[in-house]
Amino acid sequence: MTTVYWLTRDLRLDDNAALHEAARGSALVCVYMIDPRWFEPGPFGWSPMGPHRWAFIWRSLVALESSLNALGQPLVVRWQRPEEGLPEVVNAVGAQRLVASRPAAFDEMQQWQAIEAALPFVHCDLVETLTLFDEASLPFSLDALADTFSKFRRSVEKSGITLITPLAKPAELPAAAIIPDADQRQLGPVPAQSETPFAGGEASVADHLERYLWKDQSILTYKVTRNALDDVSASSKVSPWLSNGALSVRRLTAEIARFEREVDRNESTYWLYFELLWREYFQWYSRRRGRELFISPGHKGRHSGSTDAGKFRRWLSDPATHALVRAGRVQLETTGYLSNRMRQIIASASIYEGHFDWRLGAAWFEHFLVDYDVASNYGNWQYIAGVGADPRGGRVFNLEKQASQFDVDGSYRKRWLKEP
Ligand SMILES: Cc1cc2nc3c(=O)[nH]c(=O)nc-3n(C[C@H](O)[C@H](O)[C@H](O)COP(=O)(O)OP(=O)(O)OC[C@H]3O[C@@H](n4cnc5c(N)ncnc54)[C@H](O)[C@@H]3O)c2cc1C
After folding, report:
1. Domains plus CATH for the chain?
2. How far is the CA of 185 from the centre of ligand 1 (A)?
3. What is the chain's mean pLDDT, rounded?
4. Is the entire prediction scored with pTM above 0.70?
5. CA distance 355 to 332
């Protein structure tokens, strides 16, 4: 049996249940699709894929390709819409099976359904690789997902749900099914120069965790440092690798548990897991809410604000806009990263001070964030706008108070606004 394995946000060999599933046949094709729509302007002007994430994904693909090559597998990279390109690849090799990771959001699920429809005689299988838990092991049905994070967390923690043991890298893979001239990577845009500090691939995140967890043991103070605006070791900085799947959240959780067994456990070590539960909640929330995650009133039926993207862009740099917001814009657009606190501050300011529709900020983040994750990004924006999972109906941050608490000496603003 020949299998086509479509890689998406699972750019790894470690703990990759989809790869294990795909490797059950006698021949394999590993394919990554660069969708030209990623680079086309969206409704507010920004394309979904900005320079930092594209550079990071490119680096991740290069690393993945060399790991696959070591197991005798090429990586075929296509510049094509998946719903057109995948049926072509499947038919070219006469594959009986197509395997991919289960998508997190509405559009990606629609796309998968179109691919399945185009391949009526092929087994099309989705495998969970993005989440900590499997849907079947959740202590509730997806339809009954809690409407707030706290209820979700309590229900998961009370249920004694067991963490799934991560899978090892496959020792070998089936023979490569070759399609002549299938690779089209040269057709896609060359990654731009990016100042994003993140190196792509599994080896780089392994080095990063070695330093963060085991050498510096920064996890031991995570709960007290995590709100810092701009300090490399204040939070784990694993989000880019979690986002494109070079790091499995199950592996990360197992590493935190190993650290707690072998070194120490305290409130901070638990808190990193707690934040991963936030990520987990938003993954299930996205699947539960579907299209509602992307509409202005969310599932609560309220919210209004300007959708004028030109005005939003001007507001971001306007001297009358709070300096924290202006500094955050520079950091985001230069590096592709913002701390959680800065993301909250900017989201709140754009919604409650600039009076913009939250989807403008979400689209801007989507373009620039190196760690863009559809569920976490849209889930958090809706949360702050009060149209999603926030029981308090929205989060309004007092900017002066935030500045005096988190940027006491103004160094964050000075650094990014290049003020003396
Ligand atoms: C408006 C807004 C938009 C956001 N967009 C994204 C996004 O596109 N991609 C993304 O990964 N995170 C997003 N977040 C969540 C959070 O800001 C980032 O995950 C975090 O800043 C990444 O840095 P870190 O890895 O050092 O996080 P840490 O503080 O070290 O946390 C560890 C991990 O826990 C998860 N996590 C932490 N906080 C959250 C949260 N509030 N929601 C969901 N997961 C969380 C992330 O996977 C993170 O990598 C957003 C938050 C806000 C307020």
Report:
1. 1-129 (3.40.50.620), 202-292 (1.25.40.80), 295-417 (1.10.579.10)
2. 30
3. 95
4. yes
5. 21
